[in-house]
Amino acid sequence: MPNRDLVRRRLFKGADLPGNEKPNAMKSILLSFTLCLSLNLFSQPLSTEEVKILDSLLMVDIPDGAPGGAIGVIRNGEIVYENYAGLADLESGRTIDERTRFNLASNGKQFTALAILLLAEQDLLNIEDDIRKYLPELYPNISEPITIQNLLTHTSGIREASTLWAFQGKIWWKHSFNNKDVRQILSAQNDLNFEPGSEKSYCNSNYLLLTEIVEEVSGQSFQEFSDQMFAQLGMNATNFLSNHEDEVPNLARPYFNFDTWTTYEWLSDLHGDGALFSTLADQLRWELIVQKAIPDQLSASILEESQNPILAVTDYGYGLEGTEYAETPIRFHEGSTGAWKASFRRFPTKNLSIVVVNNSGKFGTSTLANRVANVLLELPQINPVYELGPGPEMELLDPEECLGTYLTGAYYFRFVELDAQLYLQRPGRPDISIATEGDGVFYEVTDPDFKMAFHENEEGQRVVTAYYPTHHSFDLIETVEDYSHITPEQIVGTYYNDEIGASIPVSHIGESTYQFDLFGESMEGDLLTPNMIGVDGDEIELVFSEDSDKRVVEMLYHSGRVRNLRFKLQDTE
């Protein structure tokens, strides 16, 4: 049984506002907020049964002597539930309580966006300004506007800095990179992932650049500016960490469990995209402000705008995702940095907010936040039910006739016969022995729940649909292109990108398989089409010369957050 002494639960009939003392006025750039809100909100305490269920939801993944987490709930402008469990520090035995500070990771983006809104309210910037008004060294060859609005909504097309460093063999969390380093590596980039405003691609570089704009406009460091902002909000136990050597009081140390609980040191100085350290109590205070239950915090216009989406191309707004949950509008975000995770859910039409934080690699806060929401919205606690195999309406093909390679992007399933046995090959995994269950269906011999069914789509292409009890089915389409005319001599060599000063040596290791020295390690890639190699699910596009030799002269690297990164074949003569 869990050690109940580790649980620190507080129930409220009325709002308890830790840190509600009047702070010193911020500098003129933040303005004196004078609007007094008068709300007639009535408490709706949780029932005894709701409290019991929420307690059990928190404790289920927190064994004795383990790291843990906390849950807080705001309903109709009042804190109705606040629960702490587990250890903040295993070595000292310090328990998690209302003073404990967690890394909220990407949940900090809403406050970086708020800093931009405060500057906009003072007419010191406009979110439609081109970012090069403030960061002139970026993308001089890009003629299209790249606006602050594009950064806020992840529609800028700017590449992920951490991936660019990875090409140099540098892993961001093993180095003390800072926001100026982000600005420097992006200043050497000639291209974007896509035309600004045309689509959304979540990328931390956007919010790291926003901190640089705040500094350029305010004349202060982002740390100083945001510290004053949090003081104005009465969130006195909250700050972005811009120097990893600074002590975080009452820190919830992060722990993974690889047979035993293991912690690690925080080395990164990146902040604004994350690295927000805060208590649950301070985050509940912010939720009270959002619900307009605390007067004199923010002007009504800023508060209103901060909770809304900005562009039609995306439902992402000022550090917030937006959608519907059980047909109820929701604003939310997820944060994850190593073993630290954090989630919040806002249901504005229900005057309901939920905050979940932890320091444990044993459980995720997103699922826990949803389960809490299900209780409070009186929804059933039902795990998703996924298709376990093809339905009777699907016309299946004979698996024996469907051997070959099937793609979704650069991710592939390859079905082969080796020594009279059928195998499934996937990138980065060992070959899996498979068998036929019936017409058109394979299953994995060691995991029969994993099934694959073959059929044709409306375009007459062969498709394999994969099924598993814990996730949605997905399709891969057969590639029937002939790439036998592509020879290793056309591909092998060393390719170089001058934007990041990184090389990719490529060698041939057998049939259609090549070895890449990528991200500081050796990785295998397979030729999947005449002009595309898949490497661990990422796509490398081959660009051939137009002469008779048809030699590959360039490779374009495409992944989720970095696309069109050009590596040119170096002259070997």
Name some characteristics of this structure:
573 residues; alpha+beta; 8-stranded antiparallel β-barrel; 11 helices; 30 strands; 18% helix
Structure overview:
18% of the residues lie in helices and 30% in strands. It has 573 residues and is an alpha+beta fold. The strands form 6 sheets. The chain has an 8-stranded antiparallel beta barrel. It has an 8-stranded antiparallel barrel with strand order 23-24-25-26-27-28-29-30. It has a 7-stranded antiparallel beta sheet with strand order 1-3-2-14-13-12-11, with helices on both faces. Strand 2 and strand 3 form a beta hairpin. Helix 5 packs across helix 6 (204-218). The longest helix has 15 residues, at 204-218. The chain is globular. Residues 1-42 have low confidence and may be disordered.
Q: What is the number of helices?
A: 11
Assign the structural class, choosing from mainly alpha, mainly beta, alpha/beta, alpha+beta, or little secondary structure.
alpha+beta
Largest sheet: 8 strands, antiparallel, barrel
User: What percentage of amino acids are in beta strands?
Assistant: 25-35%
Helix proportion = 10-25%
Compute the gyration radius: what is it? 26 Å
Which whole number gives the mean pLDDT? 89
Number of strands: 30
Global outline? globular
Contiguous runs where pLDDT drops below 50 for at least 5 residues: 1-42
Strand order of the largest sheet: 15-16-17-18-19-20-21-22
Distance from N terminus to C terminus (CA atoms, Å) equals 70 Å
